[in-house]
Specification:
CATH class of one domain: Alpha Beta
CATH topology of one domain: Ribosomal Protein L13p, Chain: A
CATH architecture of one domain: Alpha-Beta Complex
Number of helices: 5
Distance between the termini: 37 Å
Strand content: 15-25%
Helix content: 25-40%
Largest sheet: 3 strands, parallel
Shape: globular
Length: about 120
Amino acid sequence: MTIETQPAAITFDASGKSLGRLASMTAQYLQGKHLVTYSPNKDEGVSVTVKNLSLVRIAASKFTGKRYYTHTNYPGNMRIATLKEKWAKDPQKLFVKMVGGMLPKNKLRKMRLKRLLFA
């Protein structure tokens, strides 16, 4: 006898919340740490939907001071972008990158990030 349950769906309203706290809460729910049956080697199947991502609260110093560095492996080609530039380009992609950095680096990471949805 098997009991099948529907995977839970959790919705966050991002308006007025801090960006980092929203990302860490999202990462915890994607891992299933809120469930009694949490096990680090199992994927619990919890999907998270984030609404109103454009209304999230970001500190002004973080918005201009936070920098992202990339290098093209060619001499002198260090690319520096601020949070403001990346947020203006694609806030959803940046949020997925933030949440992905907070998830464990294992084989379940890609499956968990696929359950991060935006409304």
